Each structure stands twice: as C-alpha cells, then as structure tokens.
Amino acid sequence: MEGFKLEEYLGKYEFSGPEMLCASDLEGWKMQDILNMADAKSQAMWQNLSLAYTEVRGHPLLREEILKDYSPTFHKDKNIIVTAGAEEALYATIKALLTPNDHAIIMSPCYQSHFEIPKSIGCQVSEWSLNPKENWQPDLRQLKSLIQPNTKLIVINIPHNPTGMLCSESILKEIIKIAEAHGIYLLNDEIYRFMEHDDAQRLPNIADIYTRGISVNVMTKAYGLAGLRIGWVVSNDTKLISEIESYKHYLSICNSAPSEILAIIALKNKHEILNINKDYLLKNLTLLKKFMKEHQDQFEWVEPSGGCIGFIKLKNEPDVSKFCDRIREKENLLLLPADVYHVSEPYFRIGFGRKNFPTCLDKFKKYLQIRKAS
Fold this sequence. Notes:
16% strand; Aspartate Aminotransferase, domain 1; Aspartate Aminotransferase, domain 2; alpha/beta
C-alpha cells in the first residue's frame, strides 16, 4: 500500500511548531468542559468507569445515542458498529465489502484511504473527478460512464474534503438511482455532516435513504472531539456490519472506555456543542471570504458550502509546495499542498475551524503584503 501522503505531511509538521492554517477539524474541546455537561447518570458512569475491555460494537448507550440521528428502523444490535475513528470505519468497511474481482468508483480528489484501500485489495479503481469549472459538483454523466459489470462500490464524500462541496438532495438522489439500477453499494463519508454553512442544505444520511447505503461518521469534525477516536458505520446490511466486526477483531478490537463515555455525554448535549462550534466557524468563514475578495489577484476558489476547509488555487505560480514551504518558514504557518490529494494543479487546503484562525490569517496577510512589496 502506498504511503499516506496527507498524514505523512501533517505528521512531519503538525506537532513540531507551525500553527495550523490547514486543519480539517474544529477547535478541540477540553475534557472538563464535556464532563461539566454530564447529567447524573453520565456522571455516575464516568466516576465508576472500569478501564477494562469494552464491547466490540461499542457501548450500547453510545450506539443508541448515535442512532437518534438515523432511521428509527435501525437497531443498535444490528445496524451500527462503533469504531476507533473514521479511518478504522473506512478500512474495515471497504475490506469487508470488496474482493480482488470487484470494481470501485471513488469521488476525487479524495482522502487517500478512499482510493488506496480498494487498490490494496487488488480491485480495479476508477476516479470520479470533480471539476472546479462545475463548482466541484458531481457529474452524473461521468459516473454512468464509469460503471462496469463488476462495479460493487461507489465512495462519495459529501460535504467534501478538500473542496467543501455540498450538492443538492436531488443530485444525491440521482446518484442513488444510478447505484440502485446496478445493485451497487454507496458509501458516503459523512464526517462533515452538521457542518453545513446553511442548515437548510443538510442532506439525509445515505443509510437512511438507500438500502445499500453505508454511512460513516465520527466525533472528530463537527463535535471538535478528535482525541476521542470514536467513529461509526451505519447500514441496512446487517451481514456487512457483522463482517466489519470481524475485521475490527484484527484492528482495535474495541474502543477506549473513557472515550465512549465522553462521546455519550457529548451526544446528549449535541445541540449545545454544535451551536457553539457553528458560531465561531461561520465567523471565521466571513473573515476568509473577505480575505479571498481582497486577494483575488493572487487566489481563486469555489466558496465552500460545508465543513471547515477551503481549496484555494494559486494564480501566479505553479509550484504550490514551494509556496507552502515559504509560508511555513517565514510565518510559521502550515498550509496543505494539493499534491497530497494527487492533484497536480497549484491548489492548497486552508482550514478555518480553529479559534486562532483570525490570528493565523493576519500572519498570512502580513506575509503576502511583504512579498508583494519586495
């Protein structure tokens, strides 16, 4: 399996000094702030917690809390498995579903594991490319042209990383119609759900509206709780959930007991957490939109509709890696060059989900002003 370029890049720099101006998540909550939200039952669970093995599929109360966002027909013992983050969810799901004789279609650009895991199995993999000239919107004709007799899985990521693309519900239903006509599974990496900039544009969970739909989500992004490493898979296909469980036996085996209780508390206080997070996210987005307008001679983008990241194109120089290197060296700011997404054009990812974003953006502006004057 090819090295994970994005994670290797962040691993090299994220914890070694530079301030993150490309973070894909929100500001992390303090553990005590989450514990302060706990009701009496949750407090008792936390205070009496045994640091022993946990259930492979996740704490029953955690599964119940997660499923409150899904179809009431789903059952905590059949239709969900809690995983060690979204990465384990993706890995175990794709491994459980595909064989070397299968074909997979992957929305691109993408988080590398979407593409690399099917390749490692020996599958034929086709990229379903998003085009900035079409506002990064999915091209349904292209999707139809990619389907083969052995196509078993389509992987999408809406809201999208790294572009922030959010399609309409009508387009999503057309994608489902295409998949359904060929009996194809449809996995949506829904990690940016609840981070739509306009709540009215929120799409349904794919598992709720398609019998072969697979929803993957996590506490990392919308909740600002990356350190919990709590993700999940929800599906109508109970056999698939059992097969994912079998893979998990060879991976994490079970989740962290403290993380599961903290996740239960957070989900019980979901609306408060999401509202607080959304407030500063949108304030940061307003600053970024102003920045882009002021610097349209140097950058261009399709304004994101979901998530806390934007995909920005350099106008006047082709080597985005060198550009990001200079920003890091001169201003101690970390941007993410697009080659980690296997994108050859000069794009970089910017993140606006952290509370220090205004300060980081000011430093970025300062660099650009000095560079322009020199």
